[in-house]
Design brief:
By secondary structure, the chain is mainly α. The protein is built from 16 helices and four strands. Strands 1-2 form a two-stranded parallel ribbon. α4 crosses α9, α11 packs antiparallel against α12 and α12 runs antiparallel to α13. The longest helix has 19 residues.
Length: 332
């Protein structure tokens, strides 16, 4: 997969210092060549919406900076305090968002309202099967419990108490949806909006929840997985599978793996098998992700998992769980 940004050349050449270099580079020709050459080799070019603003989005925590002019080459995120080199941060943000675009089949950010007042996501006709929602504690009780956990966690992080309490109390879905697309909104505000919309079945939250599912903060991943289950979007299994199998983000694959196990979707077993295959080295640092794969494959009870589970038997940390999973397969 190759990810590029959809830039408007006629706007960029307005910069007098760069116009000649940009014109000489023949960007449109470069994109055309890139597209047909990747097609030759069975690869895909993902084009990210130019309004995504990758240079302003913190690749570490997801906070959108208010402004990062072109002459600013390094900047510090107000959300997490990480200092970024502009170009490196932009490339990391493009890569992460390109993955989201690939699995969502939509824009690089939550959709604004389409003509007629209905969101573009809501106008889509689902072509995949509906996802079965399986909650350990069931319905409103589980939803309320997870919502209390989220509010307790974000209460200390929120720097604007009035905004924080308003987002928790509002019943206006349009207000929550605006939070997802407005510039300068902190990550905690976007997380609340995405969680509440997801729990209500509003698909405008899907892209934001997918990005939170792969966040470095495990608690954010847990909340996102819960909201995605309640959302019931048919794109969720494919998104979780893409995140689980992304070798660049293995450290954050634990919750996508667990979500795939709960979903019991057609994508679940192939994704867990593929992920586990990469993590069988005895000194694998991400063995907890591998363990979740083993346990998930045992729970799913699909005989396609037998070869990789047998390969996991000698592993010092995975052997016992692999033996238990194989016994469940035999009993199925």
């Amino acid at each position: 997969m190759v990810v590029i940004e959809d830039l408007t050349v006629r706007n960029t050449v307005k910069n007098r210092r760069l116009s000649r270099a940009i014109s000489d580079a023949a960007w449109s020709e470069f994109r055309s060549m890139l597209e047909y050459k990747t097609a030759w080799y069975g690869r895909e070019v993902i084009v990210v919406n130019r309004f995504f603003l990758p240079a302003q989005l913190c690749s570490h925590c997801g906070t959108l900076a208010r402004s990062v002019p072109l002459h600013v080459r390094t900047w510090t995120c107000e959300g997490c305090g990480v200092r970024h080199a502009r170009d490196r941060n932009a490339s990391n943000s493009l890569l992460a968002t390109g993955l989201a675009v690939a699995v969502c089949g939509a824009g690089a950010r939550p959709q604004r309202n389409a003509p007629g007042g209905q969101s573009a996501a809501k106008q889509e006709t689902p072509t995949a099967r509906a996802v079965e929602v399986s909650l350990a504690h069931g319905g409103e009780e589980a939803r309320d419990e997870e919502f209390r956990s989220l509010t307790d966690r974000l209460g200390d992080e929120a720097g604007e108490p009035e905004v924080f309490h308003r987002l928790l109390a509002t019943e206006d879905d349009e207000e929550l949806a605006r939070v997802l697309v407005e510039r300068g909104r902190p990550l905690w505000a976007r997380e609340i909006a995405a969680f509440r919309l997801g729990c209500r079945g509003d698909r405008r939250a899907f892209e934001a929840l997918v990005l939170l599912l792969n966040h470095r903060d495990p608690e954010r991943c847990v909340s996102a997985a819960h909201a995605l289950l309640l959302l019931g979007d048919p794109r969720t299994p494919r998104a979780a599978a893409a995140l689980a199998t992304n070798s660049l983000r293995t450290a954050y694959a634990l919750h996508p793996v667990r979500l795939l196990t709960t979903l019991r979707a057609p994508e679940s077993v192939p994704a867990l098998v593929s992920t586990l295959h990469r993590l069988l080295a005895p000194d694998e640092p991400h063995w907890r992700v591998a363990l979740a794969c083993v346990e998930g494959l045992g729970s799913l009870g699909d005989d396609r998992a037998r070869p990789v589970l047998e390969a996991a038997l000698p592993h010092p940390r995975l052997g016992a769980a692999a033996a238990e999973a194989l016994s469940r397969l035999s009993a199925a």
